[in-house]
Amino acid sequence: MIADLDGMYDPASYNDRLLLGLKGTMSEAELHVIKQRMLQGALQKARRGELVTKAPIGYVRSAAGEVQLDPDEEVQSFVKLV
Q1: Residue 28's domain spans which residues?
Q2: Which of 60, 62, 40, 43 is nearest to 51 (CA)?
Q3: How many C-beta atoms lie closer than 10 Å to residue 16's C-beta?
Q4: How far apart are CA 76 and CA 63, in angstroms?
Q5: Model-level pTM greater than 0.70?
Q6: pLDDT tens digits, 35-78
Q7: How far apart (Å, rounded) are the C-alpha atoms in residues 57 and 5?
Q8: Residue 13 half-sphere exposure, CB side, CA atoms within 13 Å?
Q9: 7 φ, ψ to 5°?
Q10: Are residues 46 and 59 in the same domain?
């Protein structure tokens, strides 16, 4: 038996397997749509100059949003080696 918020399904039953297959296919399609929307949203923000990403390793983002070397001197020494 398999259960979700919509009900219980018996994988031995043809109808239940068919329904689970359809639900899986629809979920996969929905995931694709959500990923596309997220990507388009990020591109729109980038075009407007509003996209904020994580600072690279060894750097931190200041309160003003600027990327600076990490204040930790040990981290700075490793970044300068690279």
Answers
A1: 1-50
A2: 43
A3: 16
A4: 19
A5: no
A6: 999 999 999 999 999 998 888 888 898 888 888 888 888 888 88
A7: 42
A8: 9
A9: 155, -165
A10: no
The reply to whether 21 and 60 lie within a common domain is no
40 and 64 share a domain?
no
Indicate if 7 and 40 belong to the same structural domain.
Answer: yes
Instruction: State residue 74's pLDDT score.
Output: 87
1 & 40 share domain: yes
Residues 7 and 36 in one domain: yes
Give backbone dihedrals phi and psi of 58, rounded to 5 degrees, phi first.
95, -5
* Number of domain units in the chain: 2
- Residue by residue, DSSP assigns the chain as -EEETTEEE-TTSHHHHHHHHHHHHHHHHHHHHHHHHHHHHHHHHHHHT----PPPTTEEE-TTS-EEE-S-HHHHHHHHH-
Tokens of 4: 């979700």
Q: What is the pLDDT of residue 24?
A: 94
